[in-house]
Amino acid sequence: MPVNALYRDDFYLSTCEAVVTAVHDDRGIELDQTCFYATSGGQPGDTGFLERADGSKITLGQTKHGATKDIVVHVPLEGQEQPAVGEKLVLHVDWPRRYKLMRMHTACHLLSVVCSYPITGAAVGEDESRVDFDMTETIDKDDVTEKLMELVRQNYPVYLQWITDEELAANPGIVKSKNVRPPIGLGRVSLVCIGENSAIDSQPCGGTHVSETQEVGQIHIAKIEKKGKENRRFRIRFGAPGDEA
User: Fold this and answer.
1) Strands, DSSP E only, in 6-80?
2) What pLDDT band is residue 237 in, cutting at 50, 70 and 90?
3) Less packed terminus of the chain by CB within 10 Å, N or C?
4) In terms of domains, do 117 and 131 share one?
5) Are strands 57-65 and 48-51 parallel, antiparallel or unpaired?
6) For the domain that residue 31 is a member of, what is the CATH number?
7) How much is the pLDDT for 244?
C-alpha cells in the first residue's frame, strides 16, 4: 500500500514511529510511514534497524521501492525476526551513513554546476561518488576541485521546491540528465534548489541533501576518466586532494 514517505519532506528525520502494514514472503516489510530512503536515482537506500516494543531490534540490510514509487520495502538481514502486521515499531536510520550520502549527493549537484554538460550517469556512495558527463573537452581536476570548494565555502542554502508532473513535462529543459528520468509518477516533483531564488542551481531530484553547501565539507575530484568518445567520468571523494594516496 502507499507509504507516507517522511524523508521526502525532512531529510534530517532519522527516527519515527510506524505500523507494519505488510510482510512479504521474501521477508520485506511495509510500513504506514517511514523515514528510510529507498534506493533510487543513483543513491543507495538507508540501513538501520526497527525497534520493537520489547526493545529488540530488526536490523535492515536495504530499503527499496516495491512495484511502484509509492511503495517502500524494508528488507531485514538474514536471521532477523519478522514483525506481525499491525505491530508498532520505532524506526532508526543509520544516521552517520545517511548524512555522508546527503553530503555526497549535494556535492554531485555542485559538480553539475561547475561542469555544465549533460549528465549521462551518476552513483552516490558513502566515500566516493561518480558523475558521468557527455563531453569531449579536457578539463583539469584540480581546477574543478577549487571551483567546487568555492561553492562549498560560499555556504549557499539548499532547499526543495515542489512542482507538478505537468509543470515538469512543460519545462523539459530543467532536466540535466540525458538517460535518467526525473522522479515522476507521484503527482509532484521535488526540485533541489541551491542559492537564494535558485540562483546557483535547480534540478529535479528525489534524493536526500544537506541544507547548506558548507555541510558538504572538504571534497575533491580524485580522478577524471575517459569512458567512450564523448563521455567523461568524474570521481568525487571526501577530503583534500592527495588524502587517498
Assistant:
1) 15-23, 29-31, 33-34, 48-51, 57-65, 72-76
2) very high
3) C
4) yes
5) antiparallel
6) 2.40.30.130
7) 57
